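User: Before I run my own analysis I want an independent prediction to cross-check against. Here's the chain; please return only the structure tokens and, at the end, one sentence I can use as a sanity check.
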Amino acid sequence: MFLKNEKKEKSQNNTIILGMVMLADAYSISLASFEEDFTQSYSSEIEKSSGDNAIAVLTIAGAQIAIGHMPAPIPHGDLESTSAYAYNWESVLQEVSEHNSHLIVSVMGSSEDTVKHFKLFTQVVCALLRTTNSVGVYMGSQSLLIPKQDYLDEAHFMDEACLPLNLWIYFGLEVSDRGNSGYTYGLKEFGKAELEILDSSRSLEDIRAFLFNIAHYILDHDVTFKDGQTCGLSEKDRVAITFSNGRRVQGKSFKLAY
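Assistant: Structure tokens:
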């Protein structure tokens, strides 16, 4: 990744990450099974644990994790509106309508490393998916609905060099008579402005890949773009960056002239 006129800044935001795990039945977790799976899968120590199978609070790597069981489905209206964006889950409405309860999962911490907390959240959710009769994951702030196996498969490749952005950020695509467009929805959770590519002659596949790679670079290196910079995937690339009101996202966004 090459960025011209780059000025790197360190994010100072605290982290509160929230998501929900949809359960096919009305039963909550087994806290003991969850803890065993988590510690064995990630070789991580659970520093503190309190509560029960209905409400639990844990401390892992200095962050506080809360898991609460809600003995009712997520409101259908919330899932129905988000399902319109779940283009990788063909039978989404049918499958999510069959869930009977859900877990609310949050990760809270004061660390400056928001990415670290998202990784921890992903590990916690994976351990819950493996130890419950679960359907999938809902993250309303990012407009994400992800089926269980897709979540586990994507998270499997998470390491220091690979961030599972498809679990954290929605990558939207749009076709119009003016060209192809793409945008991110979820970078704001990291204290970053969203990205947009508008009215491009590039293919939707190229647009999505470029957005993914740029977003990965932003989070991996904690980069903050500036209006008037250029970026690219090689030294020859000169993709102009402008900062203005978003067209597909709320607030201002960085437009990449790709």
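Sanity check: Residues 15-164 form one domain.
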